[in-house]
Amino acid sequence: MTLSNEDIEVLNSKIGIKHLLANKKINLEKVLKATRHELKLREIQSELVRLQLWVIENDKKVVVLFHGGDSSEKSTVIRKIFSHNNPRHFRVEVNLPHKHESGENGYYFKKFVEKLPQAGEIVLWDRSWYNRALFEPILGMCTEGEYGKFMDQVNNFDKMMVDSGIILVKFYFTVSPDEQSGRYNELKKSPLTRWKTENWIKDSPKILKKYLKYKDVMFEKTSTDYAPWIEIDKDT
After folding, report:
1. Which strand (E) or helix (H) includes residue 36?
2. How many CB atoms neighbour CB 5 within 10 A?
3. For the chain, which ranges sit under pLDDT 50?
4. What is the DSSP letter of 127?
5. Distance from first CA to last CA of the chain, Å, rounded?
6. CB neighbours of 63 closer than 8 A, spacing ≥ 6?
């Protein structure tokens, strides 16, 4: 393997040396990849610390949504990129798909309103109210009527937040069917992680096609100029 001057500089960094010494048998290609990944992660973490300080200083309110297909590792991404932030000024909320009685009374968005950020706070949603646009109709956790009502109201809910001064960011992580299937099988084997697969959208062509249809509708109807979806392809 021929190393460029940039490669040598990367390997000579503290992080590069750490990865070089991690194994007795050195694979330079893997070491470079791991080092660049960690260096990039450090940059992101530093930027998020600076962002948080700005949010605190200016009494801003930030809401960030993390959605994606099964195996997109949303929880892992949140945990890694915010590992150096001040936990007193951000919190993680989780909205796992759950069964409820059809015709439930009350305002669907009520529980989410109650968890909106205070001034100087960032709230990260590991799945959010948008479960109703993706998982709930497929898993039979809401009726078609409830799904339709949600789709009619959700843009107004997003706009209400933005108009009130909340910075709303919506991420969607895309993974390939092959990666999703492999990850599912890996988790299913272990008794420690088997629970994570309980509500997975199974990788049969029929179910996957249905899920992608709901995703396309969600993007088409809810990616607005004031709250667009930002899609991140994890395979690239």
Report:
1. helix 28-57
2. 7
3. 101-103
4. S
5. 23
6. 116, 117, 122, 123, 125, 161, 166, 167, 168, 169
